[in-house]
Amino acid sequence: MASMLLTQRLACSFQRNYRLLVPGSRHISQAAAKVDVEFDYDGPLMKTEVPGPRSRELMKQLNIIQNADAVHFFCNYEESRGNYLVDVDGNRMLDLYSQISSVPIGYSHPALMKLVQQPQNVSTFINRPALGILPPENFVEKLRESLISVAPKGMSQLITMACGSCSNENAFKTIFMWYRSKERGQTGFSKEELETCMVNQVEDLIVKYRKKKKTVAGIIVEPIQSEGGDNHASDDFFRKLRDISRKHGCAFLVDEVQTGGGCTGKFWAHEHWGLDDPADVMTFSKKMMTGGFFHKEEFRPNAPYRIFNTWLGDPSKNLLLAEVINVIKREDLLSNAAHAGKALITGLLDLQARYPQFISRVRGRGTFCSFDTPEESIRNKLILIARNKGVVLGGCGDKSIRFRPTLVFRDHHAHLFLNIFSDILADFK
């Protein structure tokens, strides 16, 4: 995947850039506001280059066991708090990448720390059941408190999974079953069909792939094409895409694995579109703590084990997600994402005007922002320099830098980053 290739290239760049020093930040605009989140740090603190000596040693050890070329650095999660990631060398960095967009409300949030320490929750974290056949007594209750409480419009059905990949794979399978069921007229399989389907399929596939005409069971789209370079489209484009899927009898699947969970200012990014007919299926993961997909009633499997794996998610993640949703509502973090995103975009546009040779095509929705650099080598170098100045950024596409902060990322964090990055651009060669 594009992200894997980028990680590999960045990792190689790390090896060539140990010579980078750790210069102090020169803030050229107003200082960042005082910390307003009880568990947040007040700013970056750099002690070594990144990766530092301890990280490099651990990378060597890991590489004996497995290929460790993708590793950026090793982390100290006990010391990481709020918007700040601390590495094993004691470097404290403002994390605007948040584990590839998967940390919803910051590191070690007090509400989640309290939750995992409660005696009544110990069993949930220790015993991981095969949910498809042996769910715990409180499974339905916890689903209602977590995922069902934020179900997208028009989708009453839910299947939980472990990650984004298996969520999408099983959503595809669900659509294929729905489409074939429509073709068959909702009838079941005969005994002969069940016995011959596998051997007959070999010849059937050969014949099918010799023909150019192929049917389409569904259309899948991301609200913002993330790994491909943070590419946006208008709300009207998505509405028309929905119309096309309806016209041709195709399912409409929205992949909210990276855009879901509130970072765009709405809980689900596709809520911005104003669809008159809701999507048929929607996948999620990352900030949602667990994977899975919502779908309409008509996509419900008509037999057991049609959509199945051993775990089908993890009850402990539903427990955590329920508390995450409580925090989002209590602290009005959807509004915060919109507000902080506006501060970030405004600042990026200002930097684009001042440094057009380095920044172009600033874009974003909420804090889900990005911009382009002239070429991949410049993008990678900027990410490395920023990391050594105390800011963790991510890349996407061929030459873009993307922002995936937590939902507790606020205006003063945006200003802090903008000041640091302005200094970087001013000195960049």
TrEMBL record:
Which residues does UniProt assign to the signal peptide?
none
One of the Pfam families matching this protein, by short name: Aminotran_3
Names of the cofactor(s): pyridoxal 5'-phosphate
Name its GO BP terms in alphabetical order: gamma-aminobutyric acid catabolic process
The highest taxon in the source lineage is: Eukaryota
Q: State the Gene Ontology terms under molecular function.
A: pyridoxal phosphate binding; transaminase activity
GO CC terms in record? mitochondrion
This protein's UniProt keywords = Aminotransferase, Pyridoxal phosphate, Transferase
The answer to keyword Transferase applying to this record is yes
Question: In its keyword annotation, does this UniProt entry include Cytoplasm?
Answer: no
State the similarity comment. Belongs to the class-III pyridoxal-phosphate-dependent aminotransferase family.
For this entry, the protein name equals: 4-aminobutyrate aminotransferase, mitochondrial
Question: Which gene codes for it?
Answer: ABAT
